[in-house]
Design goal:
By secondary structure, the chain is of the alpha/beta class. The protein contains 4 helices and 9 strands, in the order βββαβαββββαβα. It has a 9-stranded mixed beta sheet.
Length: 209
């Protein structure tokens, strides 16, 4: 399998339970809920995505013919020390992330996390699974470590997900023109529903990639 990677870079995890942890972000090209092209946004299942995942032209991006080749590329971005951690993201990483790549990353010493929309069942071997449901999209991955819900979404109320098998439930205010209103609504929701924790995108506050 050839892996198409939009970008790969070393930074701090900016959101969720691993906020502040050093990580290599491995952003795969492509998504099953939106083409990534502005002309298709209004007809997409997920209309609020603010990430560029089209092509393979980003920093550290490219096409990799084997799992071992890509894992070696990721390892080259880690500075040494600590417990190496890689976050597979996108787009939708589970269109490409497979057991072969997970095993190759483990062989390079990495813990492997994924941030997915949950519409594809996760392969075996992952160390951390974060599912972020999108609108009306059907969830195939219904268990994991963290369910992170961008809030508010008209077609994805938190009550739809509360019975799923996740260790933690996070409400993340939707960014964009109505961000201030979304933050106020998210705070109010978490105060009224303490099963849910408030999550912020600290990388945006700190201008991290």
């Amino acid at each position: 399998m050839t892996y198409s990677v939009k970008e790969a870079y070393y930074t701090l995890q900016g959101e969720g339970a691993h906020t502040g942890r050093a990580a290599v972000f491995l952003r795969f090209a492509g998504c099953n809920l939106w083409s990534g092209l502005e002309r298709d946004r209004e007809s997409a299942v997920c209309r609020f995505c603010d990430t560029d995942f089209v092509g393979t032209d980003g920093p550290g991006g490219g096409k990799f013919k084997t799992a071992a080749e890509l894992a070696s590329h990721v390892a080259g971005l880690w500075p040494g020390g600590g417990v190496p951690y890689v976050v597979a993201t996108g787009g939708e990483p589970l269109l490409q992330l497979d057991e072969a790549l997970i095993e190759a990353l483990h062989e390079e010493g990495f813990e492997v996390g994924v941030e997915t929309n949950g519409t594809i069942a996760a392969p075996a071997g992952l160390d951390w699974i974060c599912v972020s449901p999108k609108s009306t999209a059907e969830l195939k991955q219904r268990s994991g470590d963290e369910l992170k819900l961008v809030y508010p979404q008209a077609d994805a109320s938190p009550e739809r997900f509360e019975a799923l098998d996740f260790a933690s439930f996070v409400i993340q205010p939707m960014d964009g023109p109505e961000a201030a209103d979304a933050r106020r609504a998210a705070i109010a929701f978490c105060l009224a529903n303490p099963k849910w924790r408030l999550g912020l995108q600290t990388h945006k506050l700190l201008n991290l990639p």
